From TrEMBL:
Name of the protein in its database record: Endoribonuclease YbeY
Compartments, as annotated in UniProt: Cytoplasm
InterPro entries per record: MetalPrtase_cat_dom_sf_prd, YbeY, YbeY_CS
Native organism: Dyadobacter endophyticus
Similarity remark: Belongs to the endoribonuclease YbeY family.
Cofactor(s) listed: Zn(2+)
């Protein structure tokens, strides 16, 4: 099950049913079944506090992913997304907000299935995979 929540802001996903199906299909394509994925939309300040508390990082980010999976090939996790950061990134990268939000949604899923972005080569591979799934939306 894929669920969407808002924490300290009022935010609704555009086309939630289509988006949930797209996320589940991407997961399936990567060889995983979605057990429970919670996407929590929040402000920069809210996500900054999570970043400080759990990761000991004192900077803004667009997404933090917590993997709660207990079974192989079964996804369970909490994905926090700063709507403020996504909006700023959409401007920075000259794209529309909804496209950037979909990129971040799939980015969190890709982290849960094992993709990393800790080096330039890994970032490039992850970006290519994001692009692949964005085309399928």
């Amino acid at each position: 099950m894929v669920s969407f929540f808002s924490e300290d802001i009022d935010f609704k996903v555009v086309n939630p049913i289509k988006t949930k199906k797209w996320i589940k299909n991407a997961s399936f394509s990567e060889g995983y079944e979605v057990s429970q994925l919670n996407y929590i939309f929040c402000s920069d300040e809210y996500l900054l506090e999570i970043n400080k508390q759990y990761l000991d990082h004192d900077y803004f980010t667009d997404i933090i992913t917590f993997d709660n999976s207990e079974e192989d090939k079964e996804l369970e996790g909490d994905i926090y997304i700063s709507v403020d950061r996504v909006r700023d990134n959409a401007e920075t990268f000259h794209t529309d907000f909804d496209s950037e939000m979909r990129r971040v949604l799939i980015h969190g899923l890709l982290h849960l299935v094992g993709y990393e972005d800790s080096s330039e080569a890994l970032k490039t591979a992850m970006r290519a995979k994001e692009d692949e799934y964005l085309r399928l939306f």
